[in-house]
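Reply to dn_fold:

You asked what the input looked like. This is it:
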Amino acid sequence: MNKLPPGSPGDLQRRLFQISETLSLEERNLRNNPSGLSRAADLIEEFFSRSGFSVSRQTFQVDRFDCHNLEAVPRDFCGLKEPHWILGAHYDSSPGTFGADDNISAVAILLETARLLAQSPNPPRNIRFVAYTNEEPPHFMNESMGSRVHATSCRKNGDNLQGMICLESLGYFTDKPGSQELPTLYGMPENAEDLMRSRGIIPTTGNYIAIVGDKSSNALLTRFDAAFSPGLSMPALPVVMPEMRFSDHLCYWDEGFPALMLTDTALFRNPNYHKHTDTVDTLDFKAMASITENLLSAIQKIPV
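and this is what came back:
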């Protein structure tokens, strides 16, 4: 849908496309293609290193395979005992899919945000960028989930973590009426409909961003929304929904850390969710570039 030919406008869009295309060439999971999962880890590590970060691997074994969370910090990182933030996204794909929206769209935004932040005049020293393995089933919510391993280690080590922002499925947007579903199991918060209306959101049209937190993350949600949403090319909906435990933020909630999920709502919108049709040609790189730019600005506006 938004494939960018050589010479097309928008350097950021082209870079996001190049990252997404490269990482979406094969499955990335232990069940069908563990080598593909390892190759993705190598590519992400190389990108972080080229951008000027110190990169480390948190390695653990699952079914005799080495699995890797990739963590990148500025070379003058403030240190784990000082107040800091995590920006993270998982890079594995659900078995049977190339996982372009879920979750290479978010990984591309993670990598480009890191690169651009490193190039800014006064880059912050208190950000950890983390690319997680094993978010998808059968690891989801189990001990083999990469973000579970990472969040548990943060708590065990006594890291002074002020909050985590999870990037999850950030590439699928459509103005088609009836393209968006809303969670029905628990329902939406009472004020959600009024907030949607005030922000120009049509609840059943899939062209907005959701920012999800739990009750203990409400202060972070308010601060992040104020820093992130203005100027975004699509409206954003900040919502407290502790039931929405659908990505890596849940592991930080479980360890008592404030955490948010930034998402296009994935299964509630994208007809390609966990299917072989989740390919790079379905991604909206203009929207992804806008998200990247606003994320970059928001990180610089919400210092500890």
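The radius of gyration is 18 Å.
Hope that clears it up.
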